[in-house]
Design a protein that fits this description.
alpha+beta, three-stranded antiparallel beta sheet, globular
Length: about 170
């Protein structure tokens, strides 16, 4: 096989979500991307991993304390991976401020926000649990609109907004 003819095993599934839908992309036996969509027709998974990812998302939508156990294709800089590890340690039902996370990582809050926005595996790496000092902050590099409504839904689903002024 020539270098130009490399095999790609990407598969896509779409699962309905309370806020719209989630597209699940898998490749080479790992989940490589989750994307939030406006309400969209479901697309059945065509692999066992896709089916497992869809089932785990449905379990999370039913139980915000559900813990994902999926093989992930995590690609990012060393700094992004540090941020994503720190985000993954935030328990369901809680939120952390960008500034607090940045202080823990000895990094600028803006850089933490950029790493959150670059996360290709939201929900599983729960970047929605990182909020601004006096607002929800951004989500998926958006500061308003559909993305922020998804973030609010996720935080409310997990009960993370109780007791905050946001």
């Amino acid at each position: 096989m020539s270098p130009m003819a490399t095999r790609v095993d990407r598969q896509l599934a779409v699962v309905a979500a309370p806020f719209g839908a989630v597209a699940v992309e898998t490749d080479a036996g790992r989940v490589c991307s989750l994307r939030f969509l406006a309400p969209s027709p479901e697309v059945a998974p065509s692999s066992e991993l896709g089916l497992e990812a869809v089932e785990q998302l449905k379990r999370y939508f039913a139980d915000p304390a559900f813990r994902f156990d999926l093989p992930l294709d995590i690609r990012g800089s060393a700094f992004q991976c540090r941020v994503w590890d720190a985000i993954s340690a935030i328990p369901s039902g809680t939120a952390r401020r960008y500034g607090d996370l940045a202080a823990d990582l000895a990094a600028p809050a803006r850089a933490v926000g950029q790493a959150c926005g670059d996360n290709r595996l939201p929900i599983v790496i729960p970047c929605h649990r990182v909020i601004g000092a006096d607002s929800l902050g951004g989500f998926a590099h958006a500061s308003s609109g559909f993305a922020l409504s998804v973030k609010r839904w996720l935080l409310e689903h997990e009960g993370a907004l109780r007791g905050t002024l946001i």
